[in-house]
Amino acid sequence: MKIGIDIGGSHIGVGLIEGSELKDTVDKFFSLEDRNDIENAILRNIDELVNQLLFKYNISLENIESIGVACPGTVTDGKITSWNLGLKNYNLKSKLIEKYNLNVTVRNDGKCAALMEKKYGAMKDFDDCVFVNIGTGIGGAAFLGGELLEPKRYSGFEFGHMTLVKDGIPCTCGKKGCFERYCSIKALKTRITKTLNIDSTDMSGQYLREHVMVEYHDRIQDDINEFIDYLRIGICNLIDIFEPEVVCFGGSFSYYEGHPVLEKLIKEINKAGTTFNEEKPKIVTAFFKNDAGIIGATI
Ligand SMILES: [Zn+2]
Q1: Does any domain span residue 298?
Q2: Which of 29, 33, 59, 223 has the smallest set of CB atoms within 10 Å of its CB?
Q3: What is the CATH number of the domain that holds 252?
Q4: Which pLDDT does position 293 carry in this prediction?
Q5: Domain, as residue range, for 92
Q6: 211-239 residues labelled b (16+ CB within 10 A) or e (exposed)
Q7: CA 175 – ligand 1 centroid, Å
Q8: Phi and psi (nearest 5°) for 124?
């Protein structure tokens, strides 16, 4: 058995993984206090959640082969730099090895989810693929000829930080007008709750999707249309660059499978004149949904 750890912008999930299956998962949201002391909070929460799982299944660390961590941002030799989390060169890998004395890998979450979907999920039958993880931010990966593209310097594939709007909304990365400021689920939530003048602090993605977007549909139509427009531009840019056979959406956006927002986005992308070449790729959502990262961290 392996332990997969998914560090998100707002929470940590720890899962027990057997083969390519997620046996169980426990998670915890960051408190305000955690956010002020994020480095220690990450370790403390991981420790608590790992113990919880081991206790639940009555197993010890000896039953665990390795630990894999998926986290947002750039990972270099196990060191995380993540503007979303407020981390700079945080060596989580060495801290976890010190604590658990197990083999530890730490990788960018978008890459972990992409590897999982490529090996076992929605992209397994394709060679040229673009994976776009849309959640708190936007990350991703690309495969050409079945191989994951990996730059020598940094993680690369910072899709979320390509500039979409000149002098646009300031981003946590220091630039302005980044793709994720307009097209992450967080950006969509911010936009909608601002229009409706409601509190978004504790609103889950599911609540936003299944209640708010249905109930207030007429009042937020412009927000949704603008979200789709920007997303279409960003995705079509990626299609022109990589010419993939498939584009797969991961992160919380993967739950929009069959939702009018994703249906409309696909329709817009498929219109004539949106990409350089007329033939469009297939557009799918992650088979493992939000679990792709936590399982993928261990492969
Ligand atoms: Zn940015």
Answers
A1: no
A2: 33
A3: 3.30.420.40
A4: 92
A5: 2-112
A6: ebbeeeeeebeebbeebbebbbbbbbebb
A7: 5
A8: -65, -25
User: In sequence order, which residues have a C-beta less than 8 Å from that of residue 292 and are 6 or more positions away?
Assistant: 112, 113, 114, 116, 117, 121, 250, 254, 286
Distance 56 CA to ligand 1 centre (A): 40
Quote the DSSP letter at residue 211: I
- 264 neighbors 161 (Cβ within 8 angstroms): no
pLDDT at position 242, please?
98
Residue 92 confidence (pLDDT): 96
Residues 127 and 226 in one domain: yes
Say what the pLDDT of residue 154 is. 78
Which domain-ending residue is among 112, 139, 172? 112
**pLDDT on residue 11:** 87
- pLDDT attached to residue 12: 94
Q: Number of structural domains, the chain? A: 2
Query: Are 196 and 267 in a shared domain?
Result: yes
What spacing in Å lies between the alpha carbon of 17 and ligand 1's midpoint? 33
The pTM of the full predicted model, rounded to 2 decimals, is 0.88
- 102 with 198, same domain: the answer is no
**154 and 246 in one domain?**
yes
Compute, in angstroms, the gap from residue 61 CA to the centroid of ligand 1: 39
The rounded Å distance from CA 154 to ligand 1 centre is 15
CA of 50 to the centre of ligand 1 (A): 32
Amino acid 173: pLDDT: 86
Same domain, 263 and 157: yes
| Positions in the chain whose pLDDT score sits under 50 | none
Distance 170 CA to ligand 1 centre (A): 8
Can you give the pLDDT at residue 279?
A: 96
Please, how many CA atoms are within 13 Å of residue 46, restricted to the half-sphere of its CB?
A: 24
- Examine the domain organization and report whether 201 and 269 are in the same domain: yes
**What is the model's pLDDT at position 203?**
85
